[in-house]
Amino acid sequence: MEALVPAFLLAAITQLCDKPALLTAILADRYGRPLTVAVAAGLAHAAGNFIAAGAATFMAPMMTPNAKSLLLALALIFGALGAIGSGKAPDRLSGWKLGSFLTALLGVLILSFGERTPFFTLALSTGGQPWFAAAGASIASFAVAFVAAVLGERVWRDAPLRWLRILSGIAFLVAGCWIGVNALRLT
């Protein structure tokens, strides 16, 4: 249960600033079906997070506690770099003619594989309780996708998420460096 809350918080912060939420808002406006698009996006995020948790169950027995801490540190540092550098809008998927559910499901699933949340889920899952980490990240991702779908693209783009992205990037960088220094026993 201890992995649920950190995974929820990391996913909520990162999803607010990541491209899948904007894509969810774009698709909800395009199809006029925000609930359908939000559910599809939530399922896509859940699939990515549970795949990451499944991979962690195979990796964790081979890792030392310091290696697990170092993986979390690297996830936070790369997450910080991704937060500071992710300003480009996602593809609008205009050519996709699969309907609101499948377009959102496949589009968000493909887009989320390159984002930070599954990497955080993988890193947290190696520390133990991978299914709780996946559940926490999935719940937070669905909540953000739901809000993005209901608000729509115009409101989502106008939200002051740039500062949240910068502040979260700084916080992730500091936390990642701190955990990494401790994992390498440099303190």
From TrEMBL:
- Keyword Oxidoreductase appears in the UniProt entry: no
- State the protein's name: GDT1 family protein
Q: To which protein family does this belong?
A: Belongs to the GDT1 family.
Q: Where in the cell is it found?
A: Membrane
TM region(s), chain numbering: 35-58, 70-87, 93-111, 131-151, 163-184
> What is a single molecular function from GO for this protein?
metal ion transmembrane transporter activity
Which species is this record about?
Sphingomonas kyeonggiensis
Look up and give the membrane topology term.
Answer: Multi-pass membrane protein
Which keywords accompany this UniProt record?
Membrane, Transmembrane, Transmembrane helix
Name the Pfam families on file: GDT1
InterPro entries xrefs: GDT1-like
Keyword set includes Transmembrane helix: yes
Gene Ontology cellular component terms for the protein in this record: membrane
